[in-house]
Design brief:
The chain has 516 residues and is of the alpha+beta class. The protein is built from 14 helices and 18 strands. The strands form six sheets. Strands 1-8-7-4-3 form a five-stranded mixed beta sheet.
Length: 516
């Protein structure tokens, strides 16, 4: 074994150990219980289509999955159908995980404990055993599966005109990846030299045209959402890139048209889902982002860029500001997005009775929203799937409101823990990258300022760390130059000191010019 490979294995092992310790420190499961493993042994095949005779047979539709290059837990499929008068029917098929993972089973209890899959730079900790999430309950290529279908008719302006939800048998005709599909979609949209479409899509007659139709509708859905005040926010997600045994870079995942198909279809499907439950008198777990408490700071940041926001929170005006800033500086826009996200506050899950006034999702500018389209990865989505099946079949609600309130609180609390684990391991990976760059200086933006400390994100590397010296007078959104003081790979600590602010340097330049 050459030294580079050996070093890479050691680095990955370090991150894996850190990830497992981080999981355990926060009370999360790093492996499945013996009871769950025993239950898993008893599951020998996917849920047979015949087990749900009321399910519609939709296997002949041109279903495909679009996900990350390395994703094996496929939660949803999509397909489009052109209708008269500029309307398009969009169907989203969501894996019927409940067909095999029953409420209060040992596997269900394990999933309820963590509430989500945990994706770290060292190891992935799936919410469900891989035998299920990447096989029996995954909507895998060339396999027949039971699913819950959200059926939407979208008008020429992107408005949803009709909708329905039902169970169906589906068949994945092509497994597609975001990045390769996006290259082709973007070339087609820009009418530039057309590259080769993904081979998996080209091999299915009619699928390329269907994907272009899906893309067109997704853009209309997106445009309408943003016109209504949905926020154009882009965050930086990075994964470590190893070379010669060392972490050489943190590769950033960027948005593209293929990701927007899934994002916009899932947002639409989530809205339809929660309204479907409400119309039938069932409670739901909703995903909400409340009106931001630090709107005054958002107003101040906008003013620093010569944009006036109203004193009261207004998502439409904020979206106008974000759109302006993205056009002005696409490269730095994710840093501004991160600042705004921190000031908006975290999303949370809440249980809601039918007829209650919805809190809404400020960032998406919608009142009706839930999580329903990723039941292999998120427990809230599995709960929603069970509620939908009860509504469709006229069965008693599987959860009391008190149970839903407790589950919503648990999902919110555990999500916060999971984010901390993922961030900690991500910081450990970043510390591995930076440990030989002590005393170097970097441009940064302040992403957090409070009693617990001041935090900065580097502008040229997707790395966040704590500002140990020079914090006085700083607030979220300020741009400063920092020097790397130290790193601690095990703890995921990256510490900086302030060297100068952009304002300080501008003032110095002005004084120098006046002196000259």
């Amino acid at each position: 074994m050459n030294s580079g490979i050996k070093q890479e294995i050691e680095n990955r092992s370090i991150l894996q150990d850190i990830a497992r310790r981080a999981m355990l420190q926060r009370g999360l499961l790093a492996e499945f219980s013996r009871q769950a493993e025993a239950e898993l042994e008893m599951i020998g095949e996917p849920a047979p289509i015949e087990s749900s005779p009321q399910a519609r047979d939709c296997r002949g539709l041109l279903w495909c999955s679009i996900d990350n290059d390395d994703s094996e837990d496929l939660d949803q499929l999509t397909v489009a159908e052109e209708l008269p008068d500029g309307r398009v029917r969009i169907r989203v098929a969501v894996a019927d995980v409940d067909a095999l993972v029953k409420k209060d089973s040992a596997i269900d209890r394990d999933a309820q404990h963590n509430t989500t899959s945990v994706y770290t730079a060292g190891q992935i900790f799936p919410m469900l055993p891989l035998k299920l999430s990447t096989n029996f309950t995954s909507l895998n290529y060339n396999q027949d599966r039971l699913a819950i279908v959200v059926d939407m008719v979208v008008g020429p302006d992107g408005a949803i005109l009709e909708s329905d939800v039902y169970r169906a048998a589906v068949h994945n005709h092509a497994k597609l990846a975001y990045n390769s599909l996006a290259v082709w979609l973007e070339a087609m949209a820009e009418e530039t030299e057309i590259g080769n479409p993904p081979a998996a899509a080209a091999a299915v007659p009619g699928l390329l045209d269907n994907l272009l139709l899906q893309d067109r509708v997704a853009q209309k859905l997106k445009d309408l959402r943003h016109a209504q005040g949905a926020l154009s926010l882009e965050t930086i997600e990075a994964r470590p890139v190893f070379e010669d045994g060392r972490i050489q870079n943190l590769e950033v995942e960027e948005k593209n048209r293929a990701k927007e198909i899934i994002e916009d279809f899932m947002i639409a499907a989530n809205g339809v889902t929660v309204r479907y439950l409400a119309e039938r008198g069932l409670p739901s777990i909703r995903r909400v982002v409340r009106i931001p408490k630090r709107w005054d700071r958002i107003v101040q940041i906008a003013a620093e860029h010569a944009f006036k926001l109203p004193n009261n929170p207004d998502s439409r005006k904020l979206e106008m500001f974000l759109t302006m800033m993205k056009k002005a500086d696409t490269l730095r826009f994710p840093d501004l997005s991160l600042v705004i996200i921190k000031l908006l506050g975290n999303g949370e899950y809440v249980a809601e009775r039918p007829g209650d006034e919805a809190t809404g999702h400020f960032g998406l500018a919608v009142m009706d929203y839930t999580h329903s389209t990723a039941p292999n990865r998120r427990y809230a989505d599995l709960i929603t799937g069970r509620l939908l099946k009860a509504a469709m079949e006229g069965r008693p609600v599987p959860y009391s409101l008190e149970e839903l309130e407790a589950l919503a609180y648990n999902c919110t609390r555990k999500e916060d823990m999971v984010v901390k684990v993922e961030r900690q391991v991500g910081k450990s990976a970043a510390a591995l990258l930076l440990r030989e760059r002590i005393a170097e200086q970097f441009e940064s933006v302040v992403t957090g300022a409070g009693e617990k400390g001041t935090w900065v994100r580097l502008l040229d590397l997707p790395v966040e760390g704590m500002l140990k010296k020079g914090t006085k007078g700083l607030d979220v959104g300020d741009q400063i130059r920092v020097e790397l003081l130290s790193v601690d790979v095990e703890q995921g600590f990256i510490d900086f000191k302030r060297v100068a602010s952009i304002k300080d340097e501008n003032n110095k330049d002005e004084k120098a010019e006046r002196g000259a």
